[in-house]
Amino acid sequence: MDKSLQLIQHLYGEDTDVTPAELLADERSALEFRTLARSKSLMEQRKRVSPNPLVIDHVLKAAHAATLRKGRPHLRLMQFSVTHWAVAASLLLCLVSGLFIAQTLKNQQAVAVAQTLPAWDNSERYEQVYEDMRLLETRVSTQQWGSTGSNYQTVSVIKP
Amino acid sequence: MQHWNDEQLVSAYLDDGNQKAFAQLVSRHQERIYGYLYGMVQDHEVANDLFQDTFLRVISAMQEKRASYEHRGRWIYWVLRIARNAALDYLRSRKKWVDVDGFRTEDGDTSYWDSLSEDAPSALEGLQNEEKWHWIEKCIEELPPEQREVLLMRHEAELSFKEIAELTNCSINTALGRMRYALLNVQKILSKYHHLETL
């Protein structure tokens, strides 16, 4: 890098490849450095300037309005959740309604079937008869001709 | 909140809608940005308009989903880029963004240095502040725009030469060279007016 540019870096406290002593070794560089330093010092005395307070107010209002337009992030998150909750609740309501309707229809069908059966159609009675028959059948099936018939009561036979 | 860094303040504003965080950002950097803008255009009314325009762009860009601002801890650098664009747009519209060769010293460097005395006193020594500030602004105003820009970015915006080079799309050598000529030209301008006043 050119030495004159390194002088600038040195003047503003930025790192250079050479030491300050090397940079300012010759008289011309030292003179240039002093001149540059004078200008720098002058610029550092520049009056600090600020924007009009009304402009600042306008900027801050715009920032606030932008936040409101966008919606605060955590509120957006809540809105997001509320939407989800609403959808979930709707789905649950639909499901419950569906189940209720299905159950109601089923009950109505059962009532209708019961109403179509004749008065003597007592299914419980028939079931009881069926169970008794099955029991008897089971008992009989375990007995064979010639067996002792342990399930039967034995009687003594007196031959004449 | 005053001890928060810029990135924390930006996050507080964007994530929590914290208005005080944004106000703190503006308060912290308003002089840097306004000082740069005013130095560039040399008109308070225009500088205020550009300042406002810059921040409206900043707010809009920050709130966008795909904002140009990336959280890299360089918020002020990003804002200065927007401020610079606003300033250049204005200067170009006024055809004031034209490099002026009048103070370039590439050719006349040697003679200029030969003309300097060992301990040339500053032309502004002994002046009251108001008068001094007037001459400082006069010097800044008369600098070629590129030199003025680098000088303001270094002194007002407090950017490093590397950052200035990045922001102005030039090499660091070019940025340093512009700074050198700016500082030399300040002395030239002062000498010119001092000479005129003593005629």
Describe this structure in words.
- The complex is a heterodimer of chains A (160) and B (199).
- Chain A has helices at 3-11, 20-23, 27-44, 53-70, 73-116, 123-141.
- Chain A is elongated, with a radius of gyration of 53 Å.
- Chain A has 160 residues and is mainly α.
- Chain A starts with a helix and ends in a 19-residue tail after the last helix.
- Chain A has 6 helices and no strands.
- In chain A, helix 1 packs parallel to helix 3.
- By secondary structure, chain B is mainly alpha-helical.
- Chain B is 69% helix and 0% strand.
- Chain B contains 9 helices and no strands.
- Chain B has helices at 6-16, 19-41, 44-63, 75-93, 109-115, 129-142, 145-155, 161-167, 172-197.
- In chain B, helix 7 crosses helix 9 (172-197).
- The radius of gyration of chain B is 19 Å and the shape is elongated.
- Mean pLDDT of chain B is 81; it is low at 99-121.
- Chains A and B meet through helix 1, helix 3 and helix 4 of A and helix 1, helix 2, helix 3, helix 6 and helix 7 of B.
Terminal Cα separation of chain A, in Å?
148 Å
**Mean pLDDT rating of chain B:** 81
Helical fraction of chain A equals: over 70%
Task: Please identify the structural class of chain A as seen in this structure.
Answer: mainly alpha
Secondary-structure-based class of chain B equals mainly alpha
- What's the total number of strands of chain A? 0
Helical segment tally of chain A? 6
Main sheet summary of chain A = none
> Which regions of chain B are unreliable across 5 or more consecutive residues at pLDDT < 50?
99-121
Q: What is the approximate shape of chain B?
A: elongated
Strand content of chain B: under 5%
Number of strands of chain B: 0
Sequence of secondary-structure elements of chain A = HHHHHH
The separation of the N and C termini of chain B measures 56 Å
Helix and strand pattern of chain B: HHHHHHHHH
Major β-sheet profile of chain B: none
Outline type of chain A: elongated
Radius of gyration of chain B: 19 Å
Mean pLDDT of chain A: 81
Largest Cβ-defined interface: A-B, 43 and 54 residues
Number of helices of chain B: 9
